[in-house]
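Quick one before lunch.
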Amino acid sequence: MFNLILFGPPGSGKGTQSDKLVDKYGLKHLSTGNLLRQEIADKTPLGLEAKSFIDKGQLVPDEVVIGMVDSFFDLHKDAKGFLFDGFPRTAPQAVALDKLLDLKETGISAVLALEVSEEELVKRLLNRGKTSGRSDDTDEAVIRKRFAVYNSETSAVADHYKKSGKFQSVKGEGSIDDIFASLCKAIDARMH
Ligand code: AMP
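Model of the adenosine monophosphate complex:
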């Protein structure tokens, strides 16, 4: 299996690049943000719980997210690999993911981190908020809160994978195609 984590702050282009990468490499896309938004749209108890956190720019509790990932694995037992987008976001989530993959006798192959300046991120998110229907993209205070959470909790995930030499930064500014080409180059180097 080839299991990739696409890492980076909110607005760094993980969703856009994930769509292209799963097409090219035949990986199963696991976006915890998308799964949570689907739960909200379906008005499930999990969705109702998650919404209160998402609307404030806070993280949904680890056990909720990890349970969702576990169920996703059960649904996609025959996947040839996964692309994790927006997960893991905390050190305990990274540890839980390692354990879940261990049970499948596999592990993380690479962690690619999209690097984008904060000024550019705010611009992109406010722009996305005009059309995405995402309430967490329209309020600049919520956007700033998401960055604060990223810096305080999610950056620990980078440290987790730096220790194993799987972490690589990729420039996340420029054209979508140029960024995609840089990601493919990094993936191909690790696949072969
Ligand atoms: P995203 O679409 O990845 O930007 O996620 C949108 C929101 O969903 C985040 O701001 C969090 O509130 C929540 N969320 C998504 N993924 C996670 C995760 N792995 N852990 C905790 N909360 C998450």
